[in-house]
Specification:
This protein is an alpha/beta fold. Helix content is about 40%, strand content about 15%. The two termini are about 25 Å apart. Bound molecules: 4'-deoxy-4'-aminopyridoxal-5'-phosphate. 4'-deoxy-4'-aminopyridoxal-5'-phosphate binds next to helix 4. Pathway: Porphyrin-containing compound metabolism; protoporphyrin-IX biosynthesis; 5-aminolevulinate from L-glutamyl-tRNA(Glu): step 2/2.
Length: about 425
């Protein structure tokens, strides 16, 4: 059933470290052979052996309208004939910047980069340059890309692989990264009190997606906002996952909390390599060439990435009903999963906000990295494979969020729920 994937993985391991270009894809934590994909359309992915899967990762977020969304494909095809890169400014970059500034609250300017990592790296450099301070606070289990300063108590693949301290990240760099447990405001207050006038920024996933999906508890983000205001610290929302997904204006809009800087990723390029950092003029104009905080990129604002993103974001902007539909579909799936797990007699904890969700197998609420780590991740592994065999592609790690697409139909959701029932009965 997976013979071509097996053969491809063998070949890949000869020329690509670990056989993959990004660690989580390797199925390290769930075991087995990673499935090599060939094509995808709408809600489905097809692997090299011709197996079909209902997709719940959607390229880790950007495929919010499903794969190979026709208007995006057409736009890319048309623009590819104009050139794949100019290395000079284009009107298209202004159009997408204007569109995003109109969609997202509290931002006046945006700088395009090529990944979420670059976006977060730039946001921290900008916060340091703007405040003249060196340290920043991040949360255990949150992931902000693979820049050195973020690889301290990181989530996603770092958590999946159980890497405690990343070789290559120097102690000197790591000492400026302070960490606190997610949802633990007193721990953050203590760090701020212990490091007066030294903290440039607090960076947070407003809804965490890199230790499974974890919701901010009431008062947590509000408390961070107040703490930042009282201590002249910049609050950075890493909306690489939540941006344009939870709402047109992202987490800031849906939770009603202002961030000083916002980072975006993947979805801005509709799956092309894009990230961005955005905020008010007063801060953003510290970036070069307006200011001295240097940041650059030969391929930044790439025309193919920009037209793909512009086409997707315009669709989201013009059709608010998409968010309502995503909510309904996600609610329907969660209800069905709860019934499936409940009838199989397994303990579970499902977290969901909008079209982001995840299931941990634990009898207690999952509110931070330590509670996520304590869940029955052995059961998750078996569940993952039992679902894969039944044609459902879940994130290959309990430390990742599931992402819904609006291409999912009720039939797809019913098929997923039926698969979950059968899978649980087979493995429990
Ligand atoms: N921030 C968050 C919240 C993310 O989820 C990710 C990647 N999943 C990143 C930053 C890094 O983005 P990229 O992989 O595009 O560098």
């Amino acid at each position: 059933m997976y013979s071509k994937s097996e053969m491809l993985f063998g070949r890949a391991k000869q020329v690509i470290p670990g056989g993959v270009n990004s660690p989580v894809r390797a199925f390290k934590s769930v075991g087995g052979i990673p499935v090599f994909m060939e094509r995808a359309k709408g809600a489905y992915m097809y692997d090299a052996d011709g197996n079909q899967y209902i997709d719940y990762i959607n390229s880790w977020g950007p495929m919010i309208l499903g794969h190979a969304y026709e208007p995006v494909v057409k736009a890319i095809q048309e623009y590819a004939t104009y050139s794949t890169s100019f290395g000079a400014p284009t009107e298209l970059e202004i159009k997408i910047a204007e569109l995003i500034v109109g969609m997202v609250p509290n931002i006046e300017m945006i700088r395009m980069v090529n990944s979420g990592t670059e976006a977060c790296m730039t946001a921290i450099r900008l916060a340091r340059g703007y405040t003249g301070r060196n340290k920043f606070i991040k949360f255990e289990g949150c992931y902000h890309g693979h820049a050195d300063a973020f690889l301290v108590s990181a989530g996603s693949g770092v958590a999946t692989l159980g890497i405690q301290s990343v070789p290559g990240v120097t102690a000197t760099v790591a000492q400026d990264t302070l960490t606190a447990p997610y949802n633990n405001l007193p721990a953050v207050e203590q760090l701020v009190a212990e490091n007066p006038d030294e903290i440039a920024a607090i960076i947070v996933e407003p809804v965490a997606g890199n230790m499974g999906c974890i919701l901010p508890q009431p008062g947590f983000l509000e408390g961070l906002r107040q703490l930042c205001d009282a201590n002249n610290i910049l609050l950075i929302f890493d909306e690489v996952m939540t941006g344009f997904r939870l709402a047109r204006g992202g987490a800031q809009e849906i939770l009603g909390i202002r961030a000083d800087l916002v980072t975006f990723g993947k979805i801005i390029g509709a799956g092309m390599p894009v990230g961005a950092v955005a905020g008010p003029k007063e801060i953003m104009e510290h970036l070069a060439p307006a200011g001295k905080v240097y940041q650059a990129g030969t391929l930044s604002g790439n025309p193919i990435a920009m037209i793909a993103g512009y086409t997707l974001l315009q669709t989201l902007n013009d059709n608010p009903i998409i968010y309502q539909q995503l909510q309904e579909k996600s609610d329907y799936l969660v209800k069905g999963l709860k019934e499936a797990f409940g009838s199989a007699g397994v303990v579970y904890s499902i977290n969901q906000m909008g079209s982001m969700l995840s299931a941990h197998f634990a009898e207690y609420p999952i509110v931070d990295f330590s509670s996520a780590s304590g869940a029955n991740n052995e059961l998750f592994k078996r569940f993952f494979h039992a679902m894969l065999e039944r044609g459902v592609y879940l994130p290959p790690s309990a430390f990742e969020s599931w992402f819904m697409s609006n291409a999912l139909t009720t039939e797809d959701l019913d098929a997923t729920i039926a698969a979950a029932k059968a899978a649980m009965n087979a493995i429990k």
